[in-house]
């Protein structure tokens, strides 16, 4: 363990080795958050600070994945009795899954950004335009919550969709990045041609992700609930930011980690069916060690395959081998909490994740919890949708 790396919570040796490899590859500082686990080249929950470099693999394939939570003026008693119908409307109006187009075209000024003239952005613009306002697969979701005052919140989690994935793939190939989990990080100089073009593409994907999350969440609030927006809490957690820490300027690359500067709010989801939280960063010595970063979720404790099993070929037949999570366990968990589920599969079951209070506790002294959000409805892509992202 180097003194450049701050680790929160408990982790397996492979995850710790991965953050150490990143720090050793020309970084100044590293942080591993308590929800961390292995990712492509940099662990999920990993934060790495560079002086004048950018880690393309650190930001990862789902550029600008993040969370948005909207507090509405609706109350639990108005929503809970009709939550089934509301969640039906969510999956009717919003496209979930891979390669889907938005059911309602979303117009946005971001499509006038000059960064669209860069390669490969210009070729991706038509698809990006058609996909704006879609959610995707994997652990991406649209949820409805009630807080401790029975106020209704709408929370969403997804990123820059195919635009971000194809942008990342283009620049990683151009920079000679290697495939696989256990590979060195792909790091480029910020002032190189690749570095400057990548940063322009990354920021464009960031604008795109923000616009997509706003389109989806605001439609649920206004178009489905018929409610008004009171407050919004919005953050990327796969991104690189230019920041000052201890008087020094760094590029801080967060993969699955939420910025948590003093007074900055963040929305952190638990696993499907668990409570989520609205947090706020605080100033403290340990916060500064953490590079003002915190968790982005509960964090997986078993892989998707381990949770839901896999299909194996026996002769001419494909037979499903059971995973470690049973469908009746997941169903009971949700029923006991009166949560309405649309879509999802066993790989997103609560049993496949850590408990959010535990990982929050590991970051004590760096954040405070402002609101606890109890889920009423959860919508995700269906069980046959495979997440293509390596993160």
Descriptive terms for the model:
single chain, 391 residues, alpha+beta, tRNA-splicing ligase RtcB, five-stranded mixed beta sheet, 11 helices, 19 strands, 29% helix, globular, disordered C terminus
Write down the domain tally: 1
- The gyration radius over C-alpha positions equals 20 Å
Task: Just name the CATH architecture.
Answer: Alpha-Beta Complex
Mean pLDDT: 89
Task: Tell how many strands the DSSP assignment holds.
Answer: 19
Unreliable runs, pLDDT <50, ≥5 residues?
310-314, 387-391
- By CATH reckoning, the class would read Alpha Beta
End-to-end distance: 24 Å
Helical content stands at 25-40%
Give the ordered list of helices and strands.
EHEEEHEHHHEEHEHEEEEEEHEHEEHEHE
CATH topology: tRNA-splicing ligase RtcB
Strand composition percent = 25-35%
* Main sheet makeup: 8 strands, mixed
What is the CATH homologous superfamily assignment?
tRNA-splicing ligase RtcB
Tally of contiguous helical segments: 11
Structural class of the secondary structure composition?
alpha+beta
Choose one word for the global shape: globular
């Amino acid at each position: 363990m180097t003194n450049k790396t701050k680790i929160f919570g408990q982790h397996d040796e492979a995850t710790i080795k991965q953050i150490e490899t990143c720090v050793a590859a020309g970084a100044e500082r590293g942080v591993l958050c308590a929800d961390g686990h292995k990712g492509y080249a940099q662990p999920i929950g990993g934060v790495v600070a560079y002086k004048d470099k950018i880690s393309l693999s650190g930001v990862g394939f789902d550029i600008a994945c993040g969370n948005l939570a909207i507090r509405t003026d609706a109350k639990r008693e108005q929503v809970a009795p009709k939550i089934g119908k509301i969640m039906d409307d969510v999956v009717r109006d919003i496209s979930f899954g891979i390669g889907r187009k938005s059911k309602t075209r979303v117009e946005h000024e971001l499509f006038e950004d000059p960064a669209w003239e860069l390669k490969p952005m210009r070729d991706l613009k038509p698809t990006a335009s058609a996909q704006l306002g879609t959610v995707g697969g994997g652990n991406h979701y649209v949820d409805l919550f009630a807080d401790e005052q029975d106020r209704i919140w709408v929370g969403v989690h997804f990123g820059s969709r195919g635009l971000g994935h194809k942008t990342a793939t283009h620049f990683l190939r151009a920079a000679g990045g290697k495939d696989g989990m256990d590979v060195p990080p792909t790091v480029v100089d910020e002032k190189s041609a690749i570095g400057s073009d990548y940063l322009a593409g990354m920021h464009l994907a960031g604008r795109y992700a923000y616009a997509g999350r706003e389109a989806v969440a605001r439609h649920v609030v206004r178009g489905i609930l018929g409610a008004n927006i009171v407050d919004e809490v919005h953050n990327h957690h796969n991104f690189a930011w230019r920041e000052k820490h201890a008087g020094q300027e760094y590029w801080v690359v967060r993969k699955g980690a939420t910025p948590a500067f003093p007074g900055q709010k963040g929305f952190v989801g638990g696993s499907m069916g668990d409570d989520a939280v609205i947090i706020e960063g605080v100033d403290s010595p340990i916060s500064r060690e953490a590079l003002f970063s915190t968790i982005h979720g509960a964090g997986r404790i078993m892989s998707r395959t381990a949770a839901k099993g896999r299909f194996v070929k026996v002769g001419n037949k494909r037979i499903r081998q059971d995973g470690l999570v049973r469908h009746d366990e997941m169903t009971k968990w949700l029923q006991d909490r009166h949560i309405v589920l649309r879509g999802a599969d066993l790989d997103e079951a609560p049993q496949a994740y850590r408990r959010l209070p535990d990982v929050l506790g590991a970051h004590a002294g760096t954040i405070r919890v402002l609101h606890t959000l109890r889920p009423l409805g959860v919508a995700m892509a269906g069980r046959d949708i495979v997440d293509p992202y390596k993160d």
